[in-house]
Design goal:
The chain is α/β, with parallel strands linked by helices and about 290 residues long. It has 10 helices and 12 strands. The structure holds glutamic acid. Glutamic acid binds near residues 9, 10, 11, 43 and 226.
């Protein structure tokens, strides 16, 4: 047994499709070849959108595909206290701030800025407020119950860590623009991202980074759509002093017309294929896995 540990980390917000099958088979097969461990993690922090029947569907689909994983499965909804503790460490460092602005207000702010890059691969690039809120203004907003999110301040993170663009990670797959090998992160494409929504108390970025460390993940194997999210994860690892896994971003599977699979595409779900009499070995072969 090597120290190789990887995971498949789906969110139970819909049924799995062929793209998920490709991702999980890639992670599983890579672990098998490395004589390593394969974990399944349920990323269900969004307790409104995540549904028990979709979680059950994940177990059914993966079993049908011929995969085996270690139990107990880590379910993020059972670990909000750990994400809160992580956020509190970041608060104590002064690298996160409360943002009371709505999406519309942020877009208006950005529209007024003369040289703003606009939209990045992860959505709107928010460069942070022109003026931070005063302690009094903030206290008043909190007292009136105005909703807010916690954002990472790239400026404060940089003050603490030094030039962020010098942080790197090892990419053994490929980013969407062919990025591979030792990759530098690109904080300018992300801006001050949300680390905790008020209603959820955490975010994908925070939970995934803490969990990968907690579960000793040595290799993060996932789709290229998450390549740029690695910038956030790498900064959090540096701030929270966490180990940095190796990353392997794989190509995204597309349909006959070159379109990406989405959870909304009901016809292409694994459950629908199974119900229509598809055979798991044929699906594996179709996706390029010969076993
Ligand atoms: N939960 C994420 C998703 O379903 C994947 C997380 C990851 O692999 O980093 O897109």
């Amino acid at each position: 047994m090597t120290d190789f540990i990887t995971r498949f980390a789906p969110s139970p917000t819909g049924q799995l499709h062929l793209g998920h099958a490709f991702s999980t088979l890639t992670a599983f097969e890579t672990a098998q070849k490395a004589d390593g461990r394969f974990l399944l993690r349920i990323e269900d922090i969004d307790t409104i959108r995540c549904q028990p029947e979709f979680e059950q569907g994940i177990y059914d689909d993966l079993e049908w595909l011929g995969l085996a994983w270690e139990t107990p499965v880590r379910r993020q909804s059972e670990h909000f206290d750990e994400y809160r503790a992580g956020l509190e460490r970041l608060m104590a460092m002064g690298v996160v701030y409360r943002c009371f602005k709505t999406r519309k207000e942020i877009l208006e702010d950005i529209g007024r800025a003369p040289h703003h890059p606009g939209e990045g691969p992860e959505g709107i690039i928010y460069p942070g407020p022109a003026e931070p809120l005063s302690a009094d203004e903030e206290a008043e907003k909190i007292a009136t119950g105005e909703p807010y999110a916690w954002r990472l301040s790239m400026t404060a993170a940089q003050a603490r860590l030094g030039d962020l663009s010098r942080l790197t990670f090892q990419e053994i797959g490929e980013g969407p623009n062919g990025e591979t090998g030792v990759c530098r992160i690109q904080p300018e494409l992300i801006g001050d991202a949300i680390l905790a929504r008020k209603d959820i108390g955490t975010s994908y970025h925070l939970a995934v980074t803490l969990d990968d460390a907690k579960q000793d993940i040595s290799h993060v194997i996932r789709g290229q759509d998450l390549f740029f999210a690695t910038t956030m994860h790498r900064i959090l690892q540096a701030l929270l002093d966490l180990p940095v896994p190796v990353y392997q971003h794989h190509r995204l599977l597309t349909g006959d017309e070159g379109e990406r699979f989405t959870k909304r595409d009901r016809s292409e779900t694994l459950a629908a294929m199974r119900a229509a009499g598809a055979n798991a070995a044929d699906i594996r072969r179709q996706l390029g896995f010969d076993w």
